[in-house]
């Protein structure tokens, strides 16, 4: 599979994409709220760190390997790592998909993207590229990705309906979005699973599976695009208070 545009970014293009001097999490450029999409009926967690836990600790729990195995990530696939931060998943995804695969690491914080680009070059991952996204638009090429990973970051998306709507065209046929998050309120840096399912469904995704994942701090949910992409004005926001934050798996460990 090939992307709609070249993946590898040189230093000059990276700096141009950053569109200005480096900024921290508190200074991310925000877009106008007048977009035609409904606002999230829930708090939005602040971006407090690019690191959820130390890489050594996460590797001791075999976190990335378990997520990649359950997500069916194989050599030769094209994968996006949304909210890549310091690149814990990016680096391991690059190793997993191999020379014939591709990984795009996306984040909305220029500092994180700059630091990750340096790390990718240092570790000689020629199959990995980085790009600066927007809070409501990951800015990914269309019809490109077998898997899109969103790990410990969904609760930080300020405009989830617009973000998921703009993400949909980037999925290749059979492509899936994999969300790993904690089972707690969004203001506490998690997402109740029923609320997650509702927000995805509002933009035309179906939940394929969900399972507890203690090694990653909560659960892993998998979604696919289903039917047509709705018009923005027809999308209705989910009521956060109506959803109980529970994950009760079937005996096989997954349920819709």
Topology (SSEs and partners):
Elements (H helix, E strand, L loop, with lengths): L10 H8 L36 H6 L2 H8 L7 E5 L5 H10 L4 E6 L2 H13 L5 E5 L12 E7 L8 H8 L3 E11 L11 H10 L2 E9 L4 E8 L31
Parallel strand pairs: 1-2, 1-4, 2-3, 4-5
Antiparallel strand pairs: 5-7, 6-7
Kindly describe this structure.
The protein is α/β, with parallel strands linked by helices and 256 residues long. It has seven helices and seven strands. The protein has helices spanning 11-18, 55-60, 63-70, 88-97, 110-122, 160-167, 193-202, and strands at 78-82, 102-107, 128-132, 145-151, 171-181, 205-213, 218-225. Strands 3-2-1-4-5-7-6 form a seven-stranded mixed β-sheet, sandwiched between helices. The two termini are 29 Å apart.
Key words describing this protein structure:
256 residues; alpha/beta; Rossmann fold; 7-stranded mixed beta sheet; 7 strands; 20% strand; globular; disordered N terminus
Please provide a brief summary of the model:
The protein has helices at residues 11-18, 55-60, 63-70, 88-97, 110-122, 160-167, 193-202; strands at 78-82, 102-107, 128-132, 145-151, 171-181, 205-213, 218-225. It is an alpha/beta fold and 256 residues long.
Q: Strand order across the biggest sheet?
A: 3-2-1-4-5-7-6
CATH homology superfamily name of the domain at 73-242: Vaccinia Virus protein VP39
The low-confidence runs, each spanning 5 or more residues with pLDDT under 50, are: 1-32, 242-256
How much of the sequence lies in strands comes to 15-25%
Q: Ends: how far apart? A: 29 Å
CATH architecture of the domain at 73-242: 3-Layer(aba) Sandwich
Tally of separate helices: 7
Q: SS-based structural class?
A: alpha/beta
Mind describing the biggest β-sheet?
Answer: 7 strands, mixed
Overall pLDDT level: 82
Series of H and E elements: HHHEHEHEEHEHEE
Outline, from the CA principal axes?
A: globular
């Amino acid at each position: 599979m090939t992307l709609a545009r070249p993946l590898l970014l040189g230093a000059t293009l990276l700096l141009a994409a950053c569109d200005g001097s480096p900024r921290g999490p508190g200074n991310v450029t925000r877009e106008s709220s007048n977009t035609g999409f409904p606002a999230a009926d829930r708090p939005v967690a602040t971006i407090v760190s690019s690191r959820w836990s130390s890489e050594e600790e996460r590797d001791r729990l075999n976190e990335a390997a378990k997520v990649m195995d359950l997500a069916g990530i194989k050599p030769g696939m094209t994968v996006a790592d949304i909210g890549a931060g310091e690149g814990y998943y990016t680096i391991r995804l690059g190793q997993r998909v191999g020379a014939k695969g591709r990984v795009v690491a996306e984040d909305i914080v220029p500092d994180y993207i700059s630091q990750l680009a340096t790390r990718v070059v240092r570790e000689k991952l020629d199959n990995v590229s980085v790009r600066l996204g927007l809070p409501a638009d990951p800015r990914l090429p269309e019809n490109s990705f077998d898997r899109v990973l969103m790990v410990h970051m969904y609760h930080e998306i300020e405009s989830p309906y617009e973000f998921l709507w703009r993400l949909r065209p980037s999925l290749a046929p059979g492509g899936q979005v994999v969300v790993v998050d904690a089972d707690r309120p969004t203001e506490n840096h998690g997402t109740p699973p029923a609320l997650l399912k509702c927000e995805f469904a509002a933009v035309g995704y179906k939940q394929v599976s969900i399972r507890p994942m203690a090694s990653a701090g909560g659960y892993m949910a998998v979604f696919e695009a289903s039917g047509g992409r709705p018009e923005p004005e027809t999308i209705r926001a989910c009521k956060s208070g109506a959803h109980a934050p529970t994950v009760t798996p079937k005996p096989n460990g997954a349920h819709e």
